[in-house]
Amino acid sequence: MAATTIPKSKLADPVSTSDEEKLKYFTASQWQLVWWRFRRNRLGLLGAGILATYIFILIFAELLAPYSGTTLNVEYVLGPPQVVRFWDENGFSLRPFVYGVSTERDPVTLAMVPTIDTSERRHLLFFVRGEEYKYWNKRLIVSDLHLFGVDEGTIHIFGTDRMGRDIFSRTMYATRISLTLGVTGVLIAFVMGLIMGGASGYLGGQIDFFTQRLIELIRSVPDIPLFMGLAAALPKEWPPEQVYLMITLILGFLGWTTLARRIRGKLLSLRKEDYVIAAQLSGASNTRIIARHMLPAFTSYIIVDIVVSFPYMILAETALSFVGLGLRPPVISWGVLLKGAQNIQAIELAPWLFIPVIFVVFAVLGFTFLGDGLRDAADPYS
Fold first, then answer.
1. The pTM is what?
2. Of 174, 183, 220, 188, nearest in space to 313 by CA
3. Domain contains 43
4. Beta-carbon contacts of residue 357 (< 8 Å; ≥ 6 apart)
5. What pLDDT, in 10s, does the model give residues 138-171?
6. Residue 310 belongs to a domain
7. C-beta separation of 187 from 252 below 8 A
8. Has residue 33 been placed in a domain?
């Protein structure tokens, strides 16, 4: 009798696909579960993509900017953005180009009027040699390579300000300054929040009482009068680097209160858990119990809180610099750029001076989307 051959597809697998998925799920670490949930959040991925773009700008600002932040073009003062074209009335061009432009002051209105020379094509080139720069202002790396430029003349795709400085280049450098200030401020607030909130929530007693009264005191002082006083206390003769450092420290030392209270609340609910009591009975120090056993229990929520804190720190710097209480020229930040556009004349005659607002908005949206995505991914019941 001939043997019957059973197709492999009919054979029963020892472990079905659903069982494999269940096994993979139940044996996954906490971070794997967070990543799997985060990948399904489209807004979270969009926020991560936006922030990745900003990080690229932060690192390679000198390469992306065609000029330095202080280069003047006296022939194109307060000029509108130049439009990159592929065709015009003279026909199609495979190479993108811009028209030659200049500005002259109207003798009647005193406004800067652009003059466009449609007969002059300035072709756009990539990875061109231009102004020499020191990478991150360090003498170790000196280059003159820029992402784009033109074969002749100048190009200003975001226009120029009232001194003839390229707004696109200044926006690239401002992105670096504003983001690094925000990151540094959040890190300072994070460390202080962990220390003060951890001690308050775990030790309790007089330490908890005085810590909470300090938090209430800081949060009760209005922001604008407080920053006005701090800005007045900064000596006018300080160099820009020192002012930048002090603004960063001020924002950091005033931004730790929210995180500290959240950590305190978490530790109050965890300090009576069995594994915490077991660590105390085994002779572990308070610092080890907090850092080794309690904080990891809600690490994902701390990360979410940090991400959500970035927009507030960036908006604080932008608002302070905008009203003249934060960074001062020649430092270039988003707030400093917007300070030059805070009059009716700029709104009417040079609306392109508000282009940095777009970068501020997208930065806030990027951090918000990423924070919401991480919060949903870190919640095991979402």
1. 0.83
2. 183
3. no
4. 338
5. 667 889 999 999 988 899 999 999 899 999 999 9
6. yes
7. yes
8. no
Shared-domain flag, residues 120 and 182: no
Distance of alpha carbon 146 from alpha carbon 130, whole angstroms: 7
Q: Which pair of structure tokens corresponds to residue 294?
A: 């309690």
| Last residue within a domain, chosen from 141, 165, 189 | 165
Residue holding tokens 């005193």? 110
The CA–CA distances, whole Å, from 100 to 37, 38, 120, 245 equal 52, 48, 5, 41
Nearest one of 171, 223, 178, 154 to 341, comparing CA atoms:
171
Domain span holding position 109: 70-165
194-220, pLDDT tens digit by residue?
A: 889 888 988 888 999 999 999 998 888
Residues 217 and 343 in one domain: yes
What is the 8-class DSSP label of residue 2? Answer: P
CATH number at residue 206: 1.10.3720.10
Among candidate residues 112, 138, 165, the one where a domain is terminated? 165
- Residue 339 CB neighbours (<10 A): 18
Tell me: do 232 and 201 sit in the same domain: yes
Sheet holding 85-88, edge to edge: 85-88, 91-105, 112-134, 142-150
Same domain, 127 and 216: no
First vs last C-alpha separation in the chain: 59
Instruction: Tell me the C-alpha to C-alpha distance, in Å, between residue 184 and each of 204, 281, 287, 309, 310.
Output: 29, 38, 24, 12, 10
Where helices occur in 112-204 by DSSP H, the ranges are: 167-203
Q: How would DSSP label each residue in 253-312?
A: HHS-HHHHHHHHHHHHHHTTSHHHHHHHHTT--HHHIIIIIIGGGGHHHHHHHHHHHHHH
| 200 and 320 part of one domain | yes
284/331 same-domain check: yes
Any domain includes 31: no
Q: Do 243 and 100 reside in the same domain of the chain?
A: no
E runs forming strands in the chain: 85-88, 91-105, 112-134, 142-150
Q: Which of 73, 125, 127 is nearest to 101 (CA)?
A: 73
pLDDT above 90: percentage of residues in the chain:
30
Identify residue 237 by its one-letter amino acid code. Answer: E
Task: Count the neighbouring beta carbons within 10 Å of the beta carbon of residue 58.
Answer: 17
